[in-house]
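seq as requested:
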Amino acid sequence: MKSELDYARGPEKTWIYGALRSCDGHEVIMTASCRNSTHYQRFLRLIEKASPTSEIVIVADNLSSHNSKSTRE
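struct tokens:
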């Protein structure tokens, strides 16, 4: 059975953050109740923890949480 996609916003939504380490396919996935700087920064810390000795390259869009003052700091 298929469900129709619903792009509406509301409290029942879950956001998924994901990262892939290209050298070995290791993935980092995190869910959050909303998209904000706090959750994005928590996700970045998970990425750092998963690759403590590797160079990390982040590709992100221009969502405000990706370039907020607290994220840049």
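Residues 21 and 27 are 6 Å apart (CA to CA).
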